[in-house]
Amino acid sequence: xxxxxGVKQGxxxxxxxxxxxxxxxxxxxxxxxxxxxxxxxxxxxxxxYLIKAISELGFEKPTPVQERIIPDxxxxxxxxxxxxxxxxxxxxxxxxxxxxxxVEHNLGRYTQVLVLSPxxxxxxxxxQDLRNYSKYLPDxxxxxxxxxxxxxxxxxxxxxxxxxxVATPGRLLDLIGRKAVDLSRIHTLILDEAxxxxxxxxxxxxxxxxxxxxxxxxxxxxxxxxxxxxxKIAKTYMQDAQMVTVGERNSGSDNVKHxxxxxxxxxxxxxxxxxxxYYPEIYGIIFCRTRRETGDIASALIKDGYDADALHGxxxxxxxxxxxxxxxNRHLKLLVATDVAARGIDVNNLSHVxxxxxxxEVEQYTHRSGRTGRADKTGKSIVIINTKEQxxxxxxxxxxxxxxxxxxxxxxxxxxSKQLLSxxxxxxxxxxxxxxxxxxxxLIEEKWxxxxxxxxxxxxxxxxxxxxxxxxxxxxDLNIVQEKKKKKGxxxxxxxxxxxxxxxxxxxxxxxxxxxxxxxxxxIIRMMTSLxxxxxxxxxxxxxxxxxxxxxxANAAKYVVEQTNNTEYRGRRLWSEIVD
Length: 580
Ligand code: AMP
What we know:
This protein has 580 residues and is an alpha/beta fold. The chain folds into 4 domains: 77-245, Rossmann fold; 256-409, Rossmann fold; 413-472, no CATH class; 506-579, RRM (RNA recognition motif) domain (Alpha-Beta Plaits), CATH 3.30.70.330.
């Protein structure tokens, strides 16, 4: 294990425009009138050209990684190793200061910055992001080069002498060999998703590139995880690197909640369907372990009527682009993908990531779950496991430093209700074009004259809904809840206790905590009031050794269970339910 020193001592402290407030040595771009006052990006010290562009993208305030490293990158020269997940805003974190420095070098027309990334998709995404940020920089030029595409057009593009080259290692090495790219004057080298580059076998290519670029440069290394190989790269090619960890090391984004569902192996696909059906608005990626599994699951979903498709390495680049286009346009709601195929894809606002099967390398889970919960959004990362896979969950918990909640697959009835309500919401949201539909109204009335309003509604909804009713008519409970082994004489062995009749208009909510955990009525009242239940909504409370019963007004009881069941309370799992 290498230890990273703190900020490099004695390195020249660079000009910090916003902080100095002087116009000396500024590029004309910096004189542009600052359109947004007292914006926190401005406080970080970015020039107004960049601020204008990112404001137009809707960036209101810096994300934690940006807040953490942009000031350092603007004011110091030190190398940085940054452990940050995808979706944290790291592209802007390294991109904006790099653009600043290019402006500071008067937008001189030579390649100043090199970004290395593991995949073509990530290259394209980084390039697009940097193009967006640099929209107002005059004559700015960026070129991306990657494998799997013709090399000639890339050689031609490089002849423009871009300020920034974004590349995959293999293709860049090829271009260096052909003397198509001049990296002799770069001042900044960025290794993005370094762990992925090494996972993908780019170690030798990376070594060769790092050997061939100038010694005098700043290196920024971004990685979601810190395996030994990444530490080795840092040790060999970086000087006194400052280590920055955003969030906890290797931990998943705080915006992502992690759940697992435990089922018998034979029920895995049925469980997937149940999860997908329970979230009618789902927009997510389903991760599979192999290309074959990816193809099989996508085919099964398509056959069962879902807007799904597969993304894996057997597809041609054109097919992949088509699938991605449909997914980005939301014509596809579910993308079934292998880890390799999904790398670098830039889709925001994913509501769910579903691990149909966990990856062989559990570390890969971080990358999967990082596809959701991006920027300020929240997301769910779901894992379907069989009874033998629980240990994997525990291992992942250690890596991401977060706990998984065991979730219960909904019953058929719950799925059907959810679907029905969603259909009604969709119908309510339909825009009726009165003028255009008017000529057809008499025809419609004639066709439906013998049907009541209720019948029409029922028929209308049944059109879509029958599929769910048919499928879920005799739906089994697929959940496996591993009972804890009970010790002889424990309270749990006694017949289930139910309290005496409660107050009128109230329901009993049972919570899995009691005097054994030193719970008192005050704790319960505090818990309920923190959930927003007023004192009048809380009735009798009965506390037993390892459970307690709270009388909650009938209209709030379900809400209380939703908020408390399968959550954490004082470091232990809390279960709750309404008992009759
Ligand atoms: P990245 O981690 O670079 O892939 O960024 C994830 C997403 O967050 C991208 O879609 C960015 O456009 C977006 N993003 C980055 N920084 C900000 C910010 N400060 N405010 C809002 N969105 C951001």
